[in-house]
């Protein structure tokens, strides 16, 4: 089967909110080919009028790699259709088996088309915010290989960004929490994200150069979860908190 057909399987699974078997069981494709499948599936979304608004980094913490049984970082694309406004609602009927995770989000101030070093990064970011990512693997039982999950746009399905604040403050060892109905369900530290979420952004600039996909001014970049992700259920209020940055939230319908 060609990459276009594989991309169509994943795109339809997302549209219909119906899971599919792991592609890698019957098809062989490399990590680079998985990114090609991801690209074709995103083209389909763009063809339906969606716009790219950012990127998400995945598996940037031990907790996430361990939870999902993989061992390398990945990136996926965020579109405007995936964004839920802070304090907004999520309708479960549009998802297969969504999970939420607390994240840190960067806003890009200038186009980036090469790998930046640590000192250059700050100059390319104009704000940071607490965020929640909603991931919804299109694969049955949320099970996949690294290639499978990359082809599936790294399970991207939704995100909520809280209030923006200055990128000059330290984000190196901030407590991060996921609360359901006011109860803590997952807890970690921003230090668990590659030592510091800025490292994740730097890795994004490396991937941008490698895959010739510039990171544009105005993009939001999710640095990856510090904790394992938790399944969400109807009628709960989900809050993602980052110490000193505040929180982002949504309610599940
Ligand atoms: C893949 C997405 C990983 C993160 O923050 O590490 C991710 C998944 O777990 O389904 O978003
Ligand atoms: Mg994530």
Provide structural commentary.
The longest helix has 17 residues. Helix 1 packs across helix 2. The protein has 253 residues and is of the alpha+beta class. A hairpin with a 3-residue loop joins strand 11 and strand 12. It is built from six helices and twelve strands. The protein is 25% helix and 29% strand. The chain is globular. The strands form two sheets. Strands 1, 2, 4, 5, 6, 9 and 10 form a seven-stranded mixed β-sheet that branches. A five-stranded mixed β-sheet has the order 3-12-11-7-8, with no helix packed on it. The structure holds 2-oxoadipic acid and magnesium ion. The site of 2-oxoadipic acid has 16 residues, from strand 1, helix 3 and strand 5.
User: Hetero groups bound?
Assistant: 2-oxoadipic acid, magnesium ion
Report Rg: 17 Å
What sequence of helices (H) and strands (E) makes up the elements?
HHEHEEEHEHEEEHEEEE
Biggest sheet overview: 7 strands, mixed
Q: What best-fitting shape do the alpha-carbon axes yield?
A: globular
Mean pLDDT: 96
The total of beta strands comes to 12
- Uncertain spans: none
Helix content: 10-25%
What is the percentage of strand-forming residues? 25-35%
Distance between the termini: 38 Å
Helix and strand composition category: alpha+beta
| Helix count from the secondary structure assignment | 6
């Amino acid at each position: 089967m060609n990459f276009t057909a594989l991309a169509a399987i994943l795109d339809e699974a997302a549209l219909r909110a119906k899971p599919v078997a792991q592609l890698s069981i019957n098809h062989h494709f490399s990590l680079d080919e998985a990114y090609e499948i991801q690209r074709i599936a995103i083209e389909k979304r763009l063809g339906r009028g969606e716009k790219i608004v950012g990127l998400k980094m995945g598996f940037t913490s031990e907790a996430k790699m361990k939870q999902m049984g993989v061992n390398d970082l990945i990136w996926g694309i965020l579109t405007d259709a995936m964004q839920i406004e802070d304090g907004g609602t999520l309708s479960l009927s549009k998802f297969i088996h969504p999970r939420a995770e607390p994240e840190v989000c960067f806003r890009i101030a200038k186009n980036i088309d090469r790998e930046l070093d640590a000192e250059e990064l700050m100059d390319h970011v104009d704000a940071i915010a607490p965020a929640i990512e909603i991931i919804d693997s299109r694969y049955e039982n949320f099970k996949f290989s690294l290639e499978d999950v990359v082809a599936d746009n790294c399970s991207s399905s939704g995100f909520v960004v809280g209030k923006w604040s200055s990128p000059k403050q330290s984000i190196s060892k901030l407590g991060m929490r996921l609360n359901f109905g006011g109860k803590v369900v997952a807890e970690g530290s921003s230090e668990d994200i590659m030592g510091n979420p800025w490292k994740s952004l730097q890795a994004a600039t490396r991937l941008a150069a490698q895959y010739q996909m510039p990171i544009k001014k105005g993009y939001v970049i999710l640095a990856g979860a510090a904790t394992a992700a938790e399944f969400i259920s109807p009628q709960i209020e989900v809050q993602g908190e980052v110490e000193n940055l505040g929180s982002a939230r949504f309610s599940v319908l």
